[in-house]
UniProtKB/TrEMBL annotation:
Native source organism of the sequence: Kitasatospora indigofera
Keywords: Hydrolase
PANTHER family named in the record: GDP-MANNOSE MANNOSYL HYDROLASE, MUTT_NUDIX FAMILY PROTEIN
UniProt cross-references to Pfam families, sorted A to Z: NUDIX
Cofactor: Mg(2+)
Occurrences of domain Nudix hydrolase (ranges): 39-172
The protein, known as: NUDIX hydrolase
Length: 176
């Protein structure tokens, strides 16, 4: 199969967080049509693991799906910011815990057919509490959850956010 031909694109809506475009595309052997494309800034997320094999998680409500669930710290990479630096920044802003070095855990494109979204998930080993979170609207509770409870929480739909699932399942898959 060959690559699709892009004949042009027009923005339908734009904000600092995202852009909706209609892209004039032509799949090989098929007629041209306008395809919706959602463009996002890259996202950086971090699975923070402490020395007791616990993961730093945030209990929060998502109005878009009307669900409560446990998530990992995550946010948009700002213009000119290094992805790893954004991951470190988001942990502290959202939880009040500071991490040092982060290492890449997994990279994903969660909706490749309709979006350019890129999720960069990092692993941080250890953290130090420095202050209450700056982003107080991000979570109702912040807790260290034992890693050996995570799979059961996923099974009960207590962890449903894609970036959290991806990072946590990757970490579980790498365990000896």
């Amino acid at each position: 199969m060959s690559e699709w031909t892009i004949h042009g694109s027009r923005t339908v809506y734009s904000s600092p967080w995202m852009e909706l475009a209609l892209v004039d595309v032509e799949p090989p052997g098929y007629p041209r049509y306008e395809h919706h494309l959602v463009r996002w800034a890259p996202v950086a997320a971090t699975v923070v693991l402490n020395e007791r094999d616990e993961v730093l998680m945030m209990w929060r409500h998502r109005f878009t799906t009307d669900t409560w669930n446990w998530e990992i710290p995550c946010g948009i990479v700002e213009d000119g910011e290094e992805v790893a630096a954004a991951a470190v920044r988001e942990v502290e802003e959202e939880t009040g815990w500071r991490v040092g070095a982060v290492e890449p855990l997994v990279y994903t494109q969660p909706v490749g057919g309709m979006s350019n979204a890129e999720h960069h998930v990092f692993l941080a080993r250890g953290a130090e509490f420095v202050a209450p979170p700056v982003d107080t609207h991000e979570a109702d509770r912040i807790e260290w959850i034992p890693l050996d409870r995570v799979q059961a929480m996923i099974n009960r739909r207590e962890i449903v956010a894609g970036v959290a699932l991806t990072g946590l399942l990757q970490l579980l898959a790498r365990r000896p």
